[in-house]
C-alpha cells in the first residue's frame, strides 16, 4: 500500500481449499509487504493465517488445493514457478519461524549439525567454515554457550532456547522475507518478549521484511508498522494502528484481550468477549462472515459479498458500517 515502493511480496486473490473446494481455508486474500517492513497478520484460530504462510512458502499440507490467485515475490509469481526453482528461491530468500520449535528441529541431529547444514547445503561451505558461521549465529541469537549448544540435541533445551535456535536457522542466510507463525505461543510472557525483540532486531539488521502471525493483537504493539486482520479466510481490515481499528471484528478482538498483569481489576471487568463463534470451514457464507456476531449488522450484510474498501492510503476495511 505504500506508494512509490515496489513490494517485495504481493499476494493477490489467494484462495486455498480442502476437499476440492468443499472447505475453503483462504477465500481471496490480498495484501502486500514492502522491503524492510514488519506487518502483523492477526485473527482467531482457524481464520487461515498458517495456510496463508504455507501458501507463500509452497508448503501447503496434503489435501490443500490452490484454487486461484498469485503470490509474487521479487516480481516473480511463485504459484507458476517450476518446483526446483521455487524451492531454491524460497530456501535462499525466505525464512520461516514455526509455532512449535520442536517440530521444526530434528531430534536425532545436534543443533550444530542442523544449523551447519544450512550453510553447507545452501552456500557450499566446508564443515569447518560452516561450524564457524554457526557458532557466530548461535551467539547472535543469545545462546549463552554456543560451543556447548552446537554439540547438544534439541530436546535438552528449554522452549525459549529452542525458539532461539529456530530463529537462528530462519535468519541464517539473511533472508529478505521472514514469516513468523505464532513463534511465541508456547513460551511464557518474559521469554516471548525476548524472542519478539530478537526477531525484530535481527530482521532490522538485515533489513528483512517480516510477516508476523499471531492471534494476540497486543504482541504487535511496537513491532508491526501495519496490521492485517483476518476473519474466516479474508482480510477484513488493514490498518496502521490499534487506535484506528474500524472493523467491528477488529474492535472486538482488541476489547477481548485479557488485561496485562499490571492492569487493575476494573480494567479486567471491562473485558468483552466477542459473542458467538467463527463459522466452521464447511459453512456456506453469504455476505459478511462476521455479520451473525456483529451488533452493527443490517440486513444487507447478510446478502452480498463485502469488498475491501480503501478509507485512506493506509487503511482498508471490509465492512459497510465501519466503526
Ligand atoms: N491439514 C488440514 N486438513 C484440513 N483442513 C485444514 C488443514 N489445515 C488447516 N485446515 C483448515 O483450514 C482453515 C485455516 O486453518 P489455519 O491453520 O490456516 O488457521 P490459523 O488461522 O493458522 O489457526 P491457528 O490460530 O489455530 O493456528 C481451518 O478451517 C482449518 O480447519
Ligand atoms: Mg496457525
Question: What structural keywords apply?
Answer:
323 residues; alpha/beta; Rossmann fold; 8-stranded mixed sheet; 4-stranded antiparallel sheet; 10 helices; 12 strands; binds adenosine-5'-triphosphate; binds magnesium ion
Please, could you describe this protein's structure?
With 323 residues, this protein is α/β, with parallel strands linked by helices. The protein has a single domain (9-108, 153-317), classed as 3-Layer(aba) Sandwich (Rossmann fold), CATH 3.40.50. Helices cover 31% and strands 22% of the residues. The protein has 10 helices and 12 strands. The strands form 2 sheets. It has an 8-stranded mixed β-sheet, with helices on both faces. Strand 4 and strand 5 form a beta hairpin. Helix 4 (111-123) packs across helix 5 and helix 7 packs parallel to helix 8 (189-205). Bound molecules: adenosine-5'-triphosphate (ATP) and magnesium ion (MG). Adenosine-5'-triphosphate (ATP) is lined by residues 18, 25, 43, 45-51, 61, 63, 215, 281. Residues 49-50, 181 line the site of magnesium ion.
Short description:
The chain has helices spanning 49-57, 83-93, 101-104, 111-123, 127-140, 146-151, 159-171, 189-205, 248-255, 265-269; strands at 9-18, 23-33, 38-42, 64-73, 76-77, 94-97, 177-181, 209-214, 226-231, 234-239, 309-312, 315-317. With 323 residues, it is α/β, with parallel strands linked by helices. An eight-stranded mixed β-sheet has the order 6-7-8-3-9-10-12-11, sandwiched between helices. A four-stranded antiparallel β-sheet has the order 2-1-4-5, with helices on one face.
Amino acid at each position: 500500500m505504500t506508494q512509490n515502493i515496489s513490494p517485495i511480496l504481493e499476494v493477490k486473490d489467494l484462495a486455498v481449499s480442502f476437499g476440492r473446494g468443499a472447505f475453503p481455508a483462504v477465500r481471496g486474500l490480498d495484501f502486500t509487504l514492502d522491503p524492510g517492513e514488519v506487518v502483523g497478520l492477526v485473527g482467531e484460530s482457524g481464520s487461515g493465517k498458517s495456510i496463508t504462510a504455507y501458501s507463500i512458502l509452497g508448503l501447503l499440507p496434503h489435501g490443500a488445493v490452490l484454487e486461484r490467485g498469485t503470490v509474487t515475490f521479487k516480481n516473480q509469481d511463485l504459484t507458476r514457478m517450476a518446483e526446483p526453482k521455487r524451492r531454491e528461491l524460497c530456501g535462499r530468500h525466505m525464512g520461516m519461524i514455526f509455532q512449535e520449535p520442536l517440530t521444526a528441529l530434528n531430534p536425532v541431529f545436534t543443533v550444530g549439525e542442523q544449523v551447519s547444514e544450512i550453510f553447507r547445503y545452501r552456500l557450499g561451505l566446508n564443515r569447518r567454515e560452516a561450524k564457524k558461521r554457526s557458532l557466530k549465529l548461535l551467539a547472535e541469537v543469545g545462546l549463552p554457550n554456543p560451543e556447548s549448544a552446537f554439540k547438544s540435541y534439541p530436546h535438552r533445551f528449554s522452549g525459549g532456547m529452542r525458539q532461539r535456535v529456530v530463529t537462528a536457522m530462519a535468519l541464517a542466510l539473511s533472508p529478505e522475507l521472514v514469516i513468523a507463525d505464532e513463534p511465541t505461543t508456547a513460551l511464557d510472557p518474559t521469554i516471548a518478549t525476548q524472542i519478539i525483540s530478537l526477531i525484530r532486531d535481527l530482521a532490522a539488521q538485515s533489513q528483512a521484511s517480516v510477516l508476523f502471525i499471531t492471534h494476540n493483537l497486543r504482541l504487535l504493539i511496537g513491532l508491526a508498522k501495519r496490521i492485517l486482520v483476518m476473519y474466516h479466510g479474508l482480510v477484513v481490515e488493514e490498518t496502521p494502528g490499534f487506535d484506528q481499528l474500524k472493523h467491528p471484528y477488529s474492535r472486538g478482538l482488541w476489547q477481548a484481550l485479557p488485561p496485562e498483569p499490571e492492569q487493575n481489576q476494573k480494567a479486567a471487568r471491562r473485558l468483552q468477549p466477542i459473542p458467538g463463534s467463527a463459522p466452521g470451514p464447511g459453512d456456506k457464507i453469504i455476505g459478511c462472515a462476521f455479520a451473525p456476531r456483529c451488533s452493527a449488522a443490517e440486513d444487507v450484510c447478510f446478502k452480498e459479498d463485502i469488498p475491501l474498501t480503501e478509507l485512506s492510503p493506509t487503511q482498508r476495511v471490509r465492512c459497510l458500517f465501519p466503526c
